Amino acid sequence: MKKEKNYRPNVAAVVVSSQYPSRCDVLIASRVGLKKPSWQFPQGGVDKGEDIKTALLRELKEEIGTNDIEIIAKYPKRVSYNFPDKIKYKMGNYDGQIQDYFLVRLNSGAKVDINTPKPEFSKYKFVPYKDIFKHVVKFKRTAYKEVLDYFQKEGYL
Q1: Kind of pairing, strands 25-31 and 121-128?
Q2: Which residues of 40-71 are buried (b: 16+ CB within 10 A; e: fewer)?
Q3: What is the per-residue pLDDT across 18-68, written as a single tens digit (0 to 9) for each?
Q4: I need a surface site. Which of 14, 41, 106, 133 has the fewest CB within 10 A?
Q5: 26, 132 in Cβ contact below 8 A?
Q6: pTM for the full predicted model
Q7: Torsion angle in degrees (nearest 10) through CA of 83, 86, 87, 89
């Protein structure tokens, strides 16, 4: 009998710059402590009893130093991905993550600051939407493609 996967509840944000919609630049950030850059969207776990919007705002503040955002859209389904074996050992008893995705715009004047009390990213950058897959880590690409294709189809990107 096959073991059922154990996924960590998580929220993720596709963060567009305050120039959206005239410019569609998306924030990606690279995890701290890795030998080579591992670019991804801001994301994080949902605490027990926490609603997903509260988790989203908390995670943005913890990871990019601001939650001064406007929620533009939410992907209507949850998306899961599996951790690769090389990082699975660090993730406790989780096989991967199941995520709620939001498309959010930084408000005018909002400042990204990854030098948070517990930094999770070593660097960040805004890239044009069309260039995201040149940068992001491979094991998250399928999930990202599903979500980004939806936001594009709906006219957000």
Answers
A1: antiparallel
A2: bbbbbebeeeeebeebbbbbbebbbbbbbbee
A3: 999 999 999 999 999 888 888 999 999 999 999 999 999 999 999 999 999
A4: 133
A5: yes
A6: 0.93
A7: 100
For residues 11 and 2, give the distance between their C-alpha atoms in angstroms, rounded to a whole number: 27
Residue 141: CB atoms within 10 A of its CB come to 14
- CA–chain centroid gap for 30, Å, is 11
Domains in the chain: ranges and CATH: 7-151 (3.90.79.10)
Q: Which two tokens stand for residue 37?
A: 């850059």
pLDDT band for 1, please (50, 70, 90 cuts).
low
pLDDT of residue 33: 85
